[in-house]
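haha ok so turns out i had the wrong file open the whole time. this is the CORRECT one, sorry everyone. sequence first:
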Amino acid sequence: MKSLKYSNLNITTILLLALMISNDLHAQNNSEKSITTATILSAACPGLGQLYNKKYWKIPVLYASLGTIVYYYVQNNQQYHNYKSAYIAEIDNNINTINNTGYNATNLIQLQDQYRDNRDLSAFLLALLYTLNIVDACVDAHLLNYNVNDNLSLYLKPAQSKESVNLCLKLNLQ
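then structure:
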């Protein structure tokens, strides 16, 4: 069973790398395809879209953020279950189960609620970060082909007529 799990992981990794290499080997005139590829790669595995866009510095930031959120999710979930089992031990009228936390039933309910809310917030932040990862890869792919050269200029020019004086703002993008 373990070897099946690793072979699926290897096959998935090889397919994703082949997809990335094949897109780099063929010259693409259509920027829409690279945008789609970056978005799909980032949705498949966080950070692959940034790797495809050659924004390597974003990958460690992304994984550090994901790791931090997952750590807090696991910690809050563990505390929630600890206080939940302590609450059950407190109210079950069984002398074999003992509440070792030192909290009464009301406090245990409050602690459960607090850690459950923190766990749910961590899950929401994880989903938000995953979504932002996909949006970042998509926007980065859009901006790869954006023309930023030295010919950009901004002119402020007054325009006069017989009745009024106008102020005209002209942006020259050539």
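The beta strands are 153-160, 165-172.
again sry for the mixup
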